[in-house]
Amino acid sequence: MYEGPVQDLIDELGRLPGVGPKSAQRIAFWMLDQPAEDVQRFAQVVSEVKARARFCAVCFNVSQEETCRICRDARRDQTVICVVEESKDVVAIERTREFRGLYHVLGGAISPIDGKGPSDLHIRELLTRLADGTVTEIILATDPNTEGEATATYLSRLLKDMGLQISRLASGLPVGGDLEYADEVTLGRAFEGRRYVEGSARPAPRV
Amino acid sequence: MYEGPVQDLIDELGRLPGVGPKSAQRIAFWMLDQPAEDVQRFAQVVSEVKARARFCAVCFNVSQEETCRICRDARRDQTVICVVEESKDVVAIERTREFRGLYHVLGGAISPIDGKGPSDLHIRELLTRLADGTVTEIILATDPNTEGEATATYLSRLLKDMGLQISRLASGLPVGGDLEYADEVTLGRAFEGRRYVEGSARPAPRV
């Protein structure tokens, strides 16, 4: 235990997710070594983030203005919405450059354990966006875990009679990974979702 | 990349030692979810730490007042000084409850690569503390690495003609560790520093 403000700082840093007591101590002493203006700038950015951070009024992505860059971009395909849990997921999908449509950020997933139900997510706002018929396709890109699956299932049922194309991202082996290290659920999904090679014979359709 | 203040926060967090881009993102979104007063308190502690943190005028340990709790404590043995590199080392040694003397925090170690020489450490102030003859023993507890060893060697030479007891902390196997995982230097030191069991025969002293 240190005396005074240094210990206060270590305590505060130790509350951050993923920062243990040793890291907190390391960061605190590093800060003491930094130029005062750098530490002030950091404090200011932290201090202002809650007040200045905004969320897009249309899709609830992190935004600097009333609506986000993606929603304002007329070149994006206005007929497809990719539904994700968090803004982080938007960034991850944008990095792939595979998707040129719009997003809808739910603000989490259905999780009874955390007391989070459908009414705690931006689902009503999604329905509003679908009302005028511009959107014809929905891609459900919630996380491939229990909560994400539950949320995707909930949304599928909710939307299924609206005449939309609805799809779920493929589950399977991570690219660049080793098959032998894949967990059994992932490997099972990879079998289930296998694709037939072009020109190969196909199984007879089940009746 | 996010828009605006959220990305600013992620950038600032990513500069902290040991915080990678993924952690920075995780902490940033966690902060957005926290009550505003908690985030403000964190910002304030960071903002004030450089101005409010003080170092003991005697030993250079982190302190809340002009001199630190340890230097002010008359029950501590005033005849022994344990010389360490950083305040973190004081905390580590205090936790052992093995040492009841005073400390002297050098503020680092001699490191030519980092352009750090003896004059950049609080060595002159250590000599001042030794002037009145109260201190009769010095324990050199710098880190067991190249810089720490160089610093201890430098101090040993500097102090050796002053009639003080000077010692260096023992190197050896970490308690609770596995011998097979010890690196060869540590294992070599453990052999070199081995202690004869009480009552056993001793080797003949070398002539």
Biggest interface reads: A-B, 50 and 50 residues
Helical content band of chain A: 40-55%
Q: What is the CATH topology descriptor of the largest domain in chain A?
A: Dna Topoisomerase Vi A Subunit, Chain: A, domain 2
What is the overall shape of chain A? globular
Strand arrangement within the widest β-sheet of chain A reads 4-3-5-6
Number of helix segments of chain A? 8
- Could you tell me the number of beta strands of chain A? 6
GO biological process, one term (chains A, B): DNA recombination
Zinc finger (C4-type) (chains A, B): 56-71
Function (chains A, B): May play a role in DNA repair. It seems to be involved in an RecBC-independent recombinational process of DNA repair. It may act with RecF and RecO.
Keywords (chains A, B): DNA damage, DNA recombination, DNA repair, Metal-binding, Zinc, Zinc-finger
Key attributes of the depicted protein:
four-stranded parallel sheet, zinc (chains A, B), alpha/beta, zinc ion binding (chains A, B), 2 domains, homodimer, DNA damage (chains A, B), 207 residues, globular, Dna Topoisomerase Vi A Subunit, Chain: A, domain 2, Recombination protein RecR (chains A, B), Helicase, Ruva Protein, domain 3, two-stranded antiparallel ribbon, metal-binding (chains A, B)
